[in-house]
Q: What sequence folds into this?
């Protein structure tokens, strides 16, 4: 009886051996691992592109905003305000209601290093509250700068107008100062400043 049943089993009904199953599973694992790596890499690349795009947007928006202020200025001076690296602009000739525009780079965090860029319009010289958290007139322009060395004013050459060197380094990565970094620099002319009539004109003080 048993011998008859065994003989009735066809060769194609034997199934797979354990070795064959192990080989198939190993191949499938390799293929799935490769696919997973591709998907993870694509997702990471997309996140990096989005971070870079945000950094570019922030830097460009800040530069566009400060460019208008510097163009209006008759005097500009890179000088700290309440220990914050700052740019002081005299915009009297350009605005009937504002005398000074102040730009301050204020520390926001140390890990990672981040600075916020604030703008203050005023009719008077800076006070002990200017650009601080108690200053209700300040306006946030950028929040992800990795360096506070954003402004430089140098001597003006003969027959030239005063210029302000601006350097905005912005990171779109929330944990690193070097990843997804975008740097935007420009030398912006203070169009209402007087032309230098000597070999070199020093930076004029701004209150």
A:
């Amino acid at each position: 009886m048993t011998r008859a049943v065994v003989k009735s089993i066809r060769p194609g009904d034997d199934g797979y051996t354990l070795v064959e199953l192990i080989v198939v599973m190993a191949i499938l694992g390799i293929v799935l691992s490769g696919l997973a790596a591709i998907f993870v890499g694509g997702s990471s690349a997309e996140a990096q592109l989005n971070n870079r795009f945000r950094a570019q947007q922030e830097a460009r928006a800040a530069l566009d905003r400060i460019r208008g202020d510097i163009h209006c200025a008759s005097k500009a001076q890179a000088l700290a305000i309440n220990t914050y690296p700052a740019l002081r602009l005299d915009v009297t000739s350009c605005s009937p209601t504002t005398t000074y525009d102040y730009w301050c780079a204020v520390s926001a965090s140390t890990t990672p290093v981040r600075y916020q860029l604030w703008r203050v319009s005023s009719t008077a010289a800076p006070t002990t509250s200017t650009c601080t958290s108690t200053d209700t007139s300040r306006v946030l322009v950028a929040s992800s700068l990795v360096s506070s060395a954003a402004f430089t004013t140098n001597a003006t050459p003969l027959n030239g107008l005063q210029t302000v060197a601006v350097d905005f380094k912005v990171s779109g990565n929330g944990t690193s100062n070097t990843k997804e970094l975008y740097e935007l620099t420009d030398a912006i002319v203070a169009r209402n400043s007087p032309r230098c009539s000597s070999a070199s004109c020093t930076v004029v003080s701004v209150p």
